[in-house]
Amino acid sequence: MSASAPTSSKIKLFRAKKKMLKSFILRDPYLDSSLGNYKRGSLFRNDVVFVSVTDGSFSARVFCACGDGFASAFDTAMKKTESFVAENNFDPLWLKVDYINSSNIISRTEFTEKIRGAREFFFKKGVSFDVGFETALLEAQLNCCGLIDYKLGVLNDEKIKQYLAECGTVLTSIPDMLVEFTTVGYICDENKKMYKLYPDEENYGRRIIGELTKDDIKQVIETSSVYLANAVKDNGQFDYGVNPVNDFHFVTYNILRHSGTIWSLIMQYDTTKDEKLISKIESTINFLMQSIEYSDDDHAYLVERKADEIKLGGNAIAIVTLSTYASVFGSNKYDKLITALANSILDMQEANGSYYHVLSFPGFERKERDRIVYYDGEATFALARAYSVTNDRRYLDAAEKALDYFIENDYTRFCDHWIAYAVNEVTIYDPKERYLNFGLKNANDNLGKIFNQDTTFHTFLELLMAAFSLYERIKEKKIYASYMQKFNFEAFIRTIYRRAHYMLGGYLYPETAMYMKVPLSVAYTFCVRHDSYRIRIDDVQHYIGGYYNFYNNFDKLDEYYKDIIDKPKTAQIDTNADSERASFVNWILSNI
Fold it and tell me: Which of 310, 367, 374 is nearest to 341 (CA)?
């Protein structure tokens, strides 16, 4: 940060955002009631306001003030923030305000127990080490700046003291008694748009989105796809992943995940027709080709160089990616390779329809019978896609043999999105009733698990959307499938919307990204919060995959959903939006 004289335009921008935020917050009818309840139930009589600011190049600086009334605390905190902006001469890209709406004095031992009772990076309380809130830390600071040691389940004393010292605050030791608190937040973004943030436990700290719109979904797809495109290096390799808490970039690589990420770029091009993506797609495919090896003219394999092995899933995802390229770009240049990759999958399939998972390289010898169940669905999906390109019946027959094995061995228990993709693809060409029933059952049997999953678990939306495509085809083409009578369509649609909303908790809106080490480098893409907010190319790919299919089916889904939520209340379903999840959790488990 520069110490040069501030430009008037930057201060004007800060003051404009400050004014807009104050007006926006004072118009919030929740303000007076929440502050009134807070003061009635708290030992503290002053209002406490935090202001966070960053230009996007560094983790947000946070300024806190107490006052007799919200306006007084707001003005004092903003005065501190303006001085910082002026001294350091930077654009206030994101400006965020939080006020405390609940607080409690608690022993450090009790506080530690609460941390240990929370999932990693899901502890959602702020903490102050003094009653004047001079050493207070927001929930976002605790998590996004790595100030909790979740492995030990404790506050990281040294990191906290160092962090506060860098902000100009001295804390010699963590006291035995602490103040825990929650806040209500608001943010003014780079476009001067205002958002209130969720104060509830589940969505705490991210912007409130009411009715999910098509534009909302388009935004998250496009911005996260831009992130992937920007992650492509000059040699066609991706910047594989980053821990945004400390800006540590992963040094490992996985060619299977590389291939799947190309698939996302192709889907994005198919949606936007952005010509700039073509060079990125070509570059990443060229990098992929460096890991293709042939055992003979008719058999090709994707080799994981670092392990000198061939994964069934690697061949499979390469086929899915290249067949999608063929479809979107109207190209046949990879048809021969798709055939050779599919031939190798045939060789890895057993007589009973199952697959052998891993071969060694060089030598192409069998190495490991079972590695991960996802390879089975990937391979089956790939064979069906290979059939779509080549019309070679061997591939479709092999895919059907695999589906029969999955049915016999009840693969619905794995809640696997690749199985959903595979069933949907196979039944495009051969809608046998047993496969249609299996595809519907794969979704229906897992609705309770999917609905109640407490992490974003990005592949669940992919599973649901592949099943939705299957359902719609059965309905539109009037294909008979006996399981349609058992299929809980209302629960299915509610679960799709539940996941589409909940997965936004893994999207790095500025109100979360601004506390990361380099905010602009990670804003507006997807992360895995329970793994240190990990951003990895395959995670982003799966988020995009689910939302891409949600977006493409949005109009029909919206029609179904509105019809469902407009139904009169019954004893089983409370359609009040504020209480819908609580009531539906129990209802869904007894109706699927």
Answer: 310
